[in-house]
Specification:
384 residues, alpha+beta, six-stranded mixed β-sheet
Length: 384
């Protein structure tokens, strides 16, 4: 199949010779079923678990304002966040004592200014009473041309100094005031990057086993990925997102069935799965296969990028945690074999990462170290 050419005029990604106005981010998976369109859309959203109590937005596009925890500020490259940022402080971080901010925040040269590029988040009644808001402060709210509004939008600004996310405690009732302030910085991606990630994820859906779609339906999609040098089966094979031309789980390397994108997960066949995973199914009714990042989402770097996304099992995602998912090819590149001692000889059975956290056998089977350091632990055996 010959790859079609895209327009490229004014960064347009419609096919060359198109009619009408130019478009930078056309919907090239419009032939998908509704459930698959929703799957792609959801992958483009920031969806923090438990984010509400932290003042985070949920189920919004990744190209939104991010919340920078004050304790992470020194590690952040703020220029990464093209759609803006705001700094979150806890009252214990901001106040020296009741009604007295720390000197670093009253300094005219301070780069952190509550009410401007920062706000204080109250999460407990204890902190609210110990370090109450200053008399000049107001609850955060949204304004457009000086008038309060309820929704974010063009030219809408955040105004105010603090949020309340206070849970019930004794005689104190729950109090929740002030709009969500942004998304987790680790989940951020600018509009262009987010779009290309969705394009690649759509391509991976087409290439699942028993997919109802064909590559001939995706000529426009493939043209965009080709133009961006993002479609290379050999690279997908090396990083573990595809096997034998089919989409697979980067961790366990099993070929993904199309139906698994929408089937509700069951943990009955997962050996030694932790309570956290059982909680996952009870609380989220997750699908068998979800968005999978080859490298974990972390502060101070942009990791929701095309080379880092694929589809993978929810169970495997849980097993992996905040570790990097290394492919067999990457481990072999490290040239570190692992072996077992059999009487008087060693028998190698796989390759291990240089940090000794990840092992794969020649067929891709994987072992993960679940504890980083056991040196502080002692084993106490009962007498006898």
């Amino acid at each position: 199949m010959l790859t079609k050419e895209i327009c490229e005029e004014e960064s347009c990604r419609l096919l060359k010779g198109h009619k009408g106005s130019h478009k930078n981010h056309p919907n090239v998976w419009g032939f998908f079923k509704k459930v698959d369109k929703n799957k792609i859309s959801k992958a483009g959203f920031a969806t923090p678990r438990g984010g509400k109590k932290g003042g985070y937005q949920n189920h919004v596009n990744r190209n939104n304002q991010v919340v920078i925890p004050y304790e992470q500020l020194s590690h952040e490259s703020l220029s990464l966040y093209k759609d803006g940022y705001v700094i979150r402080l806890y009252p214990e971080q901001y106040f020296e004592s009741k009604h007295t901010p720390k000197a670093q925040f009253t300094d005219p040269e301070s780069k952190v200014v509550v009410g401007d590029n920062a706000y204080v988040l109250y999460r407990t009644w204890e902190s609210f009473k110990s370090f109450p808001p200053l008399s000049s402060w107001s609850i955060r709210h949204l304004e457009h041309d000086g008038s309060k509004v309820q929704k974010r939008g063009k030219h809408v600004q955040d105004v105010g100094h603090y949020l309340l996310r206070l849970s019930t405690s004794g005689s104190d009732k729950k109090k929740d005031e002030g709009p969500p302030q942004g998304i987790f910085a680790a989940e951020y991606a600018d509009k262009e990057t987010n779009y290309l990630c969705k394009c690649l994820l759509a391509y991976f859906i087409i290439n699942t086993y028993n997919s109802p779609y064909t590559t001939s339906q995706a000529e426009h999609l493939i043209a965009i990925l080709s133009d961006e040098n993002l479609i290379d089966t050999s690279i997908f094979e090396k990083n573990g997102t595809m096997r034998r031309g089919l989409t697979c789980c980067p961790l366990c390397q099993k070929i993904l069935r199309y139906s698994e994108l929408h089937d509700t997960i069951s943990f009955e066949e997962a050996d030694a799965l932790s309570n956290a995973s059982m909680q996952l199914i009870d609380s989220t009714r997750s699908t068998v296969v979800n968005l999978f990042h080859l490298k974990p989402l972390l502060h101070h770097s942009l990791t929701h990028i095309p080379v880092n996304v694929g589809w993978g099992h929810a169970v495997c995602n849980t097993y992996l945690g905040q570790r990097e998912c290394l492919s067999l090819y990457e481990l072999q590149e490290m040239e570190m074999k692992v072996a077992i001692l059999l009487e008087d000889r060693y028998e190698t059975f796989g390759w291990i990462s240089t940090d000794k956290k990840f092992i794969r056998s020649p067929n891709g089977a994987v072992w993960i170290r679940i504890s980083d350091d056991m040196s502080d632990y002692e084993l106490n055996f009962p007498d006898g």
